[in-house]
Amino acid sequence: MTFADTYAGLPEPAKSALGLVVAFCLATLIGAERQYRQRTAGLRTAVLVSVGASAFVDLGMRLTGAEGGTRTVAYVISGIGFLGAGVIMKEGMNVRGLNTAATLWCSAAVGAFAGADMPLEALFVTATVLACNTALRPLVKLIDRLPIRESETEATYEVQVTTAPGASGPAQDLLIERLEAANYPVSAIEIEERGDEAVDVIATLTASAVEAHELDAVTAELERAPGIRHATWASRTTAD
């Protein structure tokens, strides 16, 4: 007799209990890794998500069979999405917690498999999640250390010039003219006042990749223009 046959022959309360135990144990492995790395959502959160998913899926199957389990899984997926959003934090241009949110989502998948009487599949998902969070870390660090050219990144680029308050109009025209001459069309222009002494004219480029030396040449030329006090450019990575 196979494991599947033995599992199928268990009474329903025993299946429910076993599903919760499987969800608890496997999520403990996932959560322990998050707890060790001091992430926002650690051991208890991962276990609670997995056990909750298991309980709800099991309840749906007990009430209306496979169809009820399917509907419950759909609600679990969307519900965990809201929970995961709570661990994502934006600090300036940096976003933290995306990996932890994704791990919570996967913990729910483990619980859903356990609640749907698929303990082996739950084990496979757990092994894959642990591999993603541990085995891939050296590869991520290696890629992060590799040098990359500005032209190979996708980002939002801004060129800024500082001028006197009454000279923002000519500065704006000059900025657009020099950028377009360098084949960098402008998608938006913003003017920011800095008190009564200076005004910043900021041009956002249409291009998502640039040659750094070309923008350096443009800003150097702008700084030599009459009325321009300072010129610089900056980039921020575009989130996929």
From TrEMBL:
It is a multi-pass membrane protein. The chain crosses the membrane at residues 16-32, 41-61, 73-90. Virulence factor required for growth in low Mg(2+) medium and for intramacrophage survival. May be involved in regulating membrane potential by activating Na(+)/K(+)-ATPase. It comes from the Bacteria. This is Protein MgtC. Keywords: Cell inner membrane, Cell membrane, Membrane, Transmembrane, Transmembrane helix. Residues 20-141 form the MgtC/SapB/SrpB/YhiD N-terminal domain. The keyword Glycoprotein does not apply. The keyword Hydrolase does not apply. It is found in: Cell inner membrane; Cell membrane. Its main location: membrane. Gene3D superfamilies: 3.30.70.260. Belongs to the MgtC/SapB family. Residues 157-233 form the MgtC-like C-terminal domain. The lineage of its organism: Bacteria, Pseudomonadati, Pseudomonadota, Alphaproteobacteria, Hyphomicrobiales.
